[in-house]
Amino acid sequence: MPLYPFAGRLPELAPSAWVAPTAAVVGDVTLGEGASVWYNCVLRGDVMPIRVGARSNIQDGTVVHVTRRLAETVIGADVLVGHSCMIHGCTLMDRAFVGLGAIVMDGCVVEPDGMVAAGALLTPGKRVGGRELWAGRPAKLVRLLSDEEVARNRAGAAGYVELARLHRESQA
Question: Which domains does the chain show, CATH number per domain?
Fold first, then answer.
């Protein structure tokens, strides 16, 4: 796997975590059980830690970084991070969803079952509440998610755990 040390720290992966061969995971990064990091992602825990919880997925082309001396990046369990996102010095709590191409900046928090829409820009320090959908550039609260939307987002995380298992097995 493409794991690289930095300042004496090597990424730590749970046995069932999977990192695509074209990703780069650097330094103080921890991946929980069933977590996945997809093709062409960069997780750079060089100046602060990055923590990714169980069954969370970081989809293709996403960059996850931190804020030096200020903010680590914490991604809870069962989190979906869509393709080509920028996740920087923030907290994505359990079951958060960040849509394709979204940017989540320093000091932001996305609460459980909160959602940042595709293409949104969540400016520094914003807090997305549980079941809230934020969209736009800059992102603003649009509405609350329905029960069906919350269920679909939760199912998406489980689907990525299975897909990562299939990729891992096909590359063995």
Answer: 3-170 (2.160.10.10)
0.85 cut: is pTM over it? yes
What pLDDT, on the 0 to 100 scale, is given for residue 159? 93
Residue 26, judged by CB atoms within 10 A of its CB (0-12, 13-18, 19+), counts as: buried
For residue 156 the two structure tokens come to: 């998406």
Q: What are the pLDDT digits (tens) for 15-45? A: 999 999 999 999 999 999 999 999 999 999 9
Q: How far apart are CA 126 and CA 139, in angstroms?
A: 9
Please state, in angstroms and as integers, the Cα–Cα distance from residue 64 to each residue in 3, 97, 102, following that order: 14, 15, 12
Size (the chain), residues:
172
Handedness of CA 81, 67, 91, 143 (dihedral sign): negative
